[in-house]
Amino acid sequence: MIRMAERFTRRGKDGRAAFCDVSPQGLARAAEQLARWEELLASLEAEYGALAGELETLRREGREKSYRFREKAGRKLLDGQILALLRASSLADRLPEDGGGKP
Length: 103
Hints:
By secondary structure, the protein is mainly α. 57% of the residues lie in helices and 6% in strands.
């Protein structure tokens, strides 16, 4: 079972987010978790863009039916789905470099 990361915020009755622990240690832990999320998003976006380039190269070489092409296409589709979920929940506000396109 996957354990959720520690929550650092809660929603008030007005719907606005607030920190649960505003001590220096609580804010430092929250900032560290936010940094990890931002690094994950940047890494995912970079991988998505790199996969688009690698797939285009394989396409030009006529290797669309190769195991390597299919593996990379599957990874790009998965990354695209994760990015779409993050965008839908407003955690990512921009499209990846190539805007989706072909797998």
